[in-house]
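Throughout this review, each integer encodes one residue's backbone shape. One record appears below.

===
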Amino acid sequence: MTESTRLASQQLVRMREMNRFYHERFFSDVRFTTLTLIALFVLGASQSQIAYLLVPPAALLGAAQTAFDASYLIFSRHYATDLERYLNRALGERILVAHEMEDRYLFPLNSPKIVTLTTTRDFSWFGFMTILYTAMGVAAFVFGLALGWHELFAHGPGWAVAYLGTMALLTVAALGVGWWWFPAGTGEKRLTAALAGFGQPPDET
């Protein structure tokens, strides 16, 4: 094993560990958000309807956090993909194929997608789960706001305007930046640019 392939192998292990960590982090955040939303609905029904008004910000924050986790999954997959291709070239054999399996079985890289839901090809169970989590989060947001609507205005129009304005601003900002980063491809374009020429001798001119 040459020094270059040894270093590439070490980096591949590091990226696979990172991928595993952020998968675990993603599902941990999903579970935490789900339990928090359930608790808030129970509190709203049994104690105070004000709890319902905490559901929309909790749902929005949970969605943003899980998308953040997914952005690191995409990061580690990009680097791991180029590392596996480099090592295959060095070996002269197609040995490392995890990146090919992930691209077909989970979701493809370098294609328009809503976080991990591809909008072009290869729809998968991974994509369906993305839709399911998103739909449940949107439903919780809407139901929480609807159930707490009367309580919101019971505290005066000033509080209602402040709350609704803040939630609208944060929601639009999250959707706008999320669209710029994921479906518009800004994040992956940056990764592709950073990895351009990977495995080639450095330019000493």
